[in-house]
Each structure stands twice: as C-alpha cells, then as structure tokens.
Amino acid sequence: MKQRIGLAAALALAAGLLVAQAPAPAPAGFGGGRELQRLTGQRFSDNCSGCHGTPGAVGRAPNLFDARLLSARSDADMFRIIKAGIDGAEMPAFADMLPDDQIWQMIAWIRLEADNAQPRPAFVADPDGAEITSEAQTFRIKVLARGLDTPWGIAALPDGRLLVTERPGRLRLIAADGSMATVAGTPPVWERQDAGLMDVAIDPDFARNGWVYLSLVELQPGYQLPPPPVLKPGERPPNHPSMSIIVRGRINAAGQWVDQQLLFRAPLDRYTPSGVHYGSRLGFDPQGRLLFSIGERGDMKNAQDLGTPLGKLHRINRDGSIPADNPFVKRAGAVPSILSYGHRNPQGLAFDAAGRLWQSEHGPSGGDEINLITPGGNYGWGVVSMGIQPGIAAREAPGMIGPIAYYTPTIAPSGIMVYHGNRYPRWAGNLFVAALSGQHLRRLVLDGDRITHQEVLFKSYGRVRAVTTDARGHIIALVQQPTGQGTGQPLSAATPGLVIRLEPLP
Asked: Is there a domain that residue 375 lies in?
C-alpha cells in the first residue's frame, strides 16, 4: 500500500455486502487490546498512509476511512482485495507482506478508527411526538412513562399494563396513562456496576397461573460485607462476590410480590467479584420451557468450561427442574441446565415463526454477534472472536459456530424481538435489535436462517435496552440517557429512562 494508489478504488470496484453480514469463514483473525491497536495503526502508517491518508488527513488516494466506502464493503471483500490485489487497478497483492491475521487486524482497525472520527448523534431527551419515515413503515414515537431509573427489562401484561425492572432493584407496574406503582416485597438485589435487577418475563400461561419471572443479581449467600472503605475522588467501591439467580413469584391484588420460588442458583464457589457480563435475558421456547443467559463475568475461560454456568445459555422447566432432552444432561461434570456455550455476554433471545432461536451477544472491541442457537452448540468465545481480545487470534475453529451477523465497530446489542403482530404489516417476521452503545433500534429482515437487509429506525434517544410488543401488538422499547464516550458518565452509570411506543402511521 505504501506509495501506491488503488486500494480504496479497488474496494469501490469490488462486489460488497453490508459490514454486519457475516463474511465467508476467515482462516485467521486477531487478538490483542490497546497495544495491538497501536501496532496495527503503526503498520497502516508505515505502509498505507502515504497514499491513503489517515482518519484526520486526506492522502493522494481515496481515504480508506470514508464511511460510505466502509458501509458498502464487507470485511471479506476487503480481505480478498488486500491479500490478492486486483489486476489493472494498481492494487498489488500483499499476501507476501502481511500475514492473514495482520490483514484482518488492519480491516478492523480501519473500521474502529473511522467510527471514532464520526460525530455522535445529538441526544434528544424528549422524543414524544417525533415522526419517523423508515423504509417500510412511518411511525410516531409516543412516550408512555418517564422518570425510570436505568430501566433494564420489560414485559407486557394481558390487561395492557407493563412490568418494567429498574436496575437498582425496583419492579414497576405501569398503567396505560403512564402512572407507575412499585411492586412491594420483591427480592433484594446486589447493585454495583452492571449488576442489579435485570430481566422480567411473564409465564406463557400467565392468565391462568399469574407467574412472573425475574433475573437478578444477589450477593453471595453468607458473605459478610466488610466496612466500606474511604474512597478518594473518582474511585469506585470494591465489588464483592455475586451471581445471577432466577426466581418466580406472583403479584397480588395489593401490588405485593408473593409466592416466590427460587428456580436457579449457581454453586457458591462460582460467585465472583467481577462486576461485568451478567447476561440475564429471559425467554420461553415453543414448548414453554424457560431460557436464561448468564455471561462469562469477564473471564473468557468460563465460556468453554461445561462445569460452570458462566458464559452459557440455559434451559429449565418452569418449576426449575431440568428437561430430559437438554444436551449435556447426561455428561458427567457438566451443568445440566446448559443449552449452548461459548458465550461472552448474551443479552437478547427471540424465537421466529419457524421456531429458530436468535440470540444477541456483546463482543469485546467490535465483534458483537447475532447468532442462531443450536442445542449443544459451541459459539466460540474464549477461542474465536470477530473482535479485538487479548489471547484470541482466530476467527473460526473446528466445531465452533460462527455468527449470522456481526458488528465492528460495536453497537452493544441488548434485547431482541421477532415481530409477530399485524400493526406493522411490512415488518412482520423482522428481527428488532436494541443497541446500547449504538444508541439505536435496528430492524433486520430475515429469510430463513439468513439476514438479508438491515435498517436503523432511530438513533437519537439514548441507549436502547429492550424491545417487545404490548397486548395490542405495538412495539415498545426501553431507552436510557447516554453513558460512556463523550458523555462524562461511566459506561455503567445509572441514568434516567423512558418507555416509548412506536405508533404506526398511514
């Protein structure tokens, strides 16, 4: 690339796919953190910047950080062009100069740097009444409830009310007029960093049995908290051993949490002081069995270890017993509730009309995933990744299932939903993805086990945590004021949130 023009032009000539569409399997990938990114940037400077410029400066050749160019080309296209070159396009082959892993590193580095150079969307604190014309549907944003504290999970009741969890530990009942009541007597939670009260779901037979399911983080039973330390300005209090648990209970006529049952608790030796990657999304399969995710808690070795529940998707019966057909129920030493493994921080679960289970998962730096789950499947975390991670240098490995789509730079996909209603006919069967760092709601068009098209519906209202439908088939979502880069707030900071509804317009 040094002292030559043609890479950007060659990319423009090549047939391309959306970056989010997973490429053909790649023989190598990259690992590393900030140091690897620095080294990759130096390679680009040494070999490419003389012609193609840098994120902040234009060279003699087209700038490789142009967002339009990058959005039109997949990683696989870019890899083929850099490795093999293009005859007659002044683009030589770099196969003898750059190993495959360094080519993949270069591609990811370019995408990350290009994204860092883009301005962030202006935050709209009150989107009520905003009208949006998308590719297939015009809709208006209706704010249903305000003043929530870091809303995390949402479930719609048959009578039109909504259940919403707030990470600090409150379960809210929201009426049609937006008024809120707090359900009294819910279990105590451990709130620190990413931990707290997480997801909520109602039983498939809720009208008959009234069961409500919660995912929450508890401090290790029996652990004695030490006296709180004196903190210097900017310091965080220490974390203590904690873990996600799954419970169910009922809400009586007085708005009280009653009849609680514990459905899942990990062995106490699996509790960890890590404050990240709890996963914690709930769902039900077509047979009515309960699914829940648990992240690997920041230690990627857990994801490949069948002896720990961390880094796994689990399946249990609604009373907490283990289904007889779970894939590892007869394997000695394996946690019998495991449905699939090799996960990092899975936060979205949804079934399509054909019964396929879709899952969203946070990657490291880039490499967020949309997966199709196969019982017993290994999804690779700890061994492979499409993102930047110290200790991982491969993008694929035998016996490991790659994503249907992935995202670099990151969007931090959280809750997902396949739309099955009739309020938005042209969205029927589409997969909707709530994005946290991406701060948008994304629509994915499905064709069997493929994603054929993607559209961002809005991206100005903050972190989108969860998406579902209400009793009348309207799409509703949880949004939270922005945190992280450019906000002055830590990424896991508590901020106010809203419940919004997408109201279809002619």
From this structure: no
Q: Are residues 192 and 106 in the same domain?
A: no
**Total domains present in the chain:** 2
> Exactly one of 52, 277, 314, 440 is catalytic; which is it?
277
Residue 277 annotated to the active site: yes
Enter the pTM of the model. Answer: 0.90
Q: Are residues 110 and 135 in the same domain?
A: no
SS3 labels along 362-410: ECCECCEEEEECCCCCECCCCCECCCECCCCCECCCCCCCCCCEEECCC
Residue 372 domain flag: no
Residue 175 within any structural domain of the chain: yes
The answer to whether residue 337 is domain-embedded is: yes
User: Tell me, what amino acid is at 399?
Assistant: G
Residue-wise DSSP of 430-477: -EEEEETTTTEEEEEEEETTEEEEEEEEE-SS-EEEEEEE-TTS-EEE
Reading the chain (506 residues) residue by residue, the pLDDT tens digits are 433 334 444 444 333 333 334 433 333 333 346 777 788 778 777 777 766 777 777 766 667 788 887 888 888 888 888 888 878 766 778 888 888 878 877 888 888 888 877 777 789 999 999 999 999 999 999 999 999 999 999 999 999 999 999 999 999 999 999 999 999 999 999 999 999 999 999 999 999 999 999 999 999 999 999 999 999 987 888 999 999 999 999 999 999 999 999 999 999 999 999 999 999 999 999 999 999 999 999 999 999 999 999 999 999 999 999 999 999 999 999 999 999 999 999 999 999 999 999 999 999 988 999 999 999 999 999 999 998 888 888 899 999 999 999 999 999 999 999 999 999 999 999 999 999 998 999 999 999 999 999 999 999 999 999 999 999 999 999 999 999 888 888 899 999 999 999 999 98
Domain region containing 24: 7-116
In the 8-state DSSP scheme, what is residue 135? S
